[in-house]
Amino acid sequence: MDLKKLATIVRLARGDRSQGRFARDLGVNPGTLRNWESGNSEPDLDNLKAIADASGRNLLQLIAEITGAKSETLPEAHTAEDVMAIASKLEKVEQFRLIQLLVAQMAIHAGIEMAED
């Protein structure tokens, strides 16, 4: 595991939040978070999942990124959360387009005819 990559991901996931606030959000001690951000220790699997969620990734994406595994080896998205992790990385215009496509697909399934622009 590349602790430097993990430290960067944790800092980016924290964003503007203080270390104390982010540690509480993750359910860990602030000292533990400081160790992760400085690359002095690595989180357990449950905490990796929390970091993945906070950073907009799924657990497999996070592990691939911090271990250097090729992303092509990751499984396809199978849950809404998997799709959201991918969608959160899209530019805003593509996120809106995705929403439009989802609404149109749901309308088809519900038998509702949608007006085209």
Describe the fold and architecture.
With 117 residues, the protein is mainly α. It contains 7 helices and no strands. Helix 1 packs across helix 3, helix 2 packs across helix 3 and helix 4 packs across helix 5.
Residue-averaged pLDDT: 83
**Dominant shape:** elongated
Radius of gyration: 18 Å
Structural class: mainly alpha
What's the gist of this structure?
By secondary structure, the chain is mainly alpha-helical. The protein has 7 helices and no strands.
State the main characteristics.
117 residues; mainly alpha; 7 helices; elongated
Which secondary structure elements does this structure contain, and how are they paired or packed?
Blueprint: H1 3-14, H2 19-26, H3 30-38, H4 45-54, H5 59-67, H6 80-87, H7 92-110
Helix pairs in contact: 1-3, 2-3, 4-5
